[in-house]
Structures are given as C-alpha cells and as structure tokens.
Write a structure and sequence with these properties.
- The protein is of the alpha+beta class and about 160 residues long.
- About 45% of the residues lie in helices and about 10% in strands.
- It is built from seven helices and four strands.
- Helix 1 runs antiparallel to helix 2, helix 2 packs antiparallel against helix 3 and helix 3 packs across helix 4.
- The protein is elongated and about 50 Å long.
- The two termini are about 25 Å apart.
Length: about 160
C-alpha cells in the first residue's frame, strides 16, 4: 500500500490505471487487484468509484469483491498471517497452530491486532503439504510449525525492533 500518498493521489493513480485499459469492463478483477494494492483494501467508496469508472453496476463490483476471498473490504494489518487448513495441515495440527497464533497475537482468526501489525486468517490448501502444518506470512511459507517457540521466532521477524 502507498502510505505516503494522499487520497487524491490514490484516486488519480487508480483512474490513470483504468484509463490505460483498452477493455475496461472486462478487466474488473485486475482493476480490483490494483485498487487493493494501492488502498490496502476495498471500502465501499472505492468499489463505487470503480463501478462508475467502468460503467458497470456497483452491485456487480460488490459481488466480485465479496465472492473472491483474496479481496477484503476491511483494512488488514501490516503483516497478514495465514494458517493453511487443508487436509494435510489439518491432520498435522493446523487447529493447534491457529490456536497458538491466536494466543500469541491475542486475536481470533479474521481479526487484526490493535496496533494494526498483524491480521490472522485461514485459507485452504497452499500446496506445501510436505511441510504441514504451515503458516504463511506476507506470502512467505513457514513449515512444520508445531512448536510455540518456533511460531514466536517467526512472528518476531515481523515485529519492529524495540
């Protein structure tokens, strides 16, 4: 997310991107990905703006945003922690991993820490079954996460130095 830009700069950047597209309506998902990249999430006003720019119903935009789990309508933390809940991870302790993360972060899955540093989420299989159970932090896979200390060590890498 572009933290240093003003809201007007975000809108201009999004508008410039949309204006550069040859087939605007057909690129809704790409536009949503780009908007989420700049805003960090897709609030109602951004969805409405995209609908206006693409000349499509805002309900269509909302339908896509709410259908695909990659998109979010609420701000996420600086670091997104995902716990794989696929079969291999589940069998090898994904629930215990999720519980330990909830304990260490003091939030439940689907929530963000009060300091906006971490968001904890679950997702389906990530294809790293041999490393089960796994957690993914900002896209980086961390495997064999069975010990509380190992989990704490990984989270410490993403915390600011005191």
């Amino acid at each position: 997310m572009c933290d240093s830009a003003s809201p007007n700069e975000f809108v201009k950047k999004l508008d410039d991107y949309i204006d550069s597209l040859t087939h605007k309506k057909e690129n809704l998902i790409g536009v949503l990905h780009y908007a989420q990249e700049i805003y960090g999430y897709l609030p109602d006003n951004v969805q409405w703006h995209i609908a206006q720019k693409l000349d499509i119903p805002s309900a269509t935009v909302y339908g896509v945003v709410s259908f695909y789990s990659f998109f979010t309508m609420v701000p996420r933390g600086e670091h997104v922690v995902n716990v794989c809940t696929g079969t291999a991870c589940f069998v090898r302790g994904a629930e215990a991993l999720k519980g330990e993360l909830e304990n260490q972060l003091k939030i439940k899955a689907g929530e963000t820490t009060p300091d906006n540093l971490f968001t904890l989420e679950t997702l389906r299989c990530v294809g790293a079954c041999g490393l089960a159970p796994v957690m993914i932090v900002d896209g980086k896979v961390h495997g064999r996460m069975n010990e509380a200390q190992h989990i704490n060590e990984v989270l410490a890498k993403y915390r600011p130095e005191s």
